[in-house]
Design a protein that fits this description.
By secondary structure, the protein is mostly helical. The chain has one domain: Growth Hormone, Chain: A. It has 16 helices and no strands. α12 crosses α16. The chain is globular, with a radius of gyration of 25 Å. Its main location: membrane. Pfam families: MFS_2. Belongs to the major facilitator superfamily. GO terms for molecular function: symporter activity.
Amino acid sequence: MANNSASILDKQVADNIFSTENDDSQPRTPGIPLSRKLCYAVGGMPYQMTANAKGFFMQIFLLDVVKMSAFSASIILFLGRAWDAISDPLIGYAVSKSGRTRIGKLIPWIVFTMPLGVLSYVMLWYTPQDTMSSGFSFGWYFTWCCLFDTFMSCYHVPYSSLNMFLGGNQKDRDSATGYRMGMEVFATLAGAAIQGQIVGVHHAKRTRACSLQNNTEGTGFFGNHSNSLDDTFESLRNTRRAYLIGALVLGMLYFLCCLILFIGVKEQLAPLSKLDRINVSYLTGMKMVVRHTPYVRLVFGFLFASLAFQVYIPALIVISIVKSNLPTFIIMSMLAGMSLAALYLLPWSMLPDVVDDFKVKNPSCHDLEPLFYSCYVFFNKFGGGMSVGVSTLVLHFVGYKPGACKHNPEVITSLRVLFAPVPICLLLISLVIFGFYPINEKRRQKIQEALRKAGAETGLKGEEELSL
């Protein structure tokens, strides 16, 4: 009976809030300073740098450097992403249950898990032995993959939730999201470029060796190969060392970006949020999140769009297999840029509106923002894991051979199918789902008006509590 009364009261509060008209006499929320936006944006770079370097190169590293079978590599990539995705909601709930400290509620998670994230990322690219058994190799890379994804979730879930606690209004948050997306796109390019420049020289040497080998076989001249095995072994060792150096460089940038975030961003209370411990169980919180219709439609639209984009990864393999073709590379880069802009900027800008809509409809449920953001990240990572795992399994079944200088036509055809028809179908599904997204501009303005009224009533008191 008490629960029913509380639900009726919450509905009446939400209805009263939505019925209010714009009142210019209400105090306006101070905007977000540019310095805070920039420091917040820089904090998003570690995730994109490491995740994209891992996404672009981990498959190649396991297949051609570690000499792991395509099937084992696909299991690591898929199960690693699956574990990463499953752990996100759990970490989101743990963040929600944590209390507020002197430096905030979310920032301690970001700062104190950063060293573990850096260490696990470096160890992910470290080869402990020159020759490893298949079982040891699988266990080593799978363990560090899961550890890195876990610590990165401990960083990224509270970081993404921090957008709700930067201060300002909805436009200010969108502006901060725009800065963040710009930095993350730069981080994507920087991560791939840094890793690519460091390891690319060694892959180029191997490509030239393959070309020389093919030319030698074509002319029937075999020459003196007494040192060929030693040269191959030394080249492989140098390549492994290059991957480790690349990981150390990105790890140092990870530390620097986290330091800038810690110095430049302080958590601000938001309307209908107290930055305190939640008082609901994990299952209850998850039920409340997944039953919010706007959130469900946004998440599934984002899932299929994410699947469509990250199937793009095999296209990089296509580029590395075909002969050098500058127009092809330019076109691929343009498509990747447009995909990133649409995929990441718009849904992340829509997510705060969904969370605000939930808070207005459920004014007694506070501080569930990390749970919302963790589930959102969950579907992004789940889509990435599915796409990478499936693409690697396809390579296994069509006869991909690690380290081979030439590949059969079935491999090339499969990659082309994964690159074009599959993403198009997935994108069409996501567009249909977004077509039923219920929060339009009129609805968004009502939500913001409701939050302004709530902020006028509790904002000054909350700021005093936060300063204490």
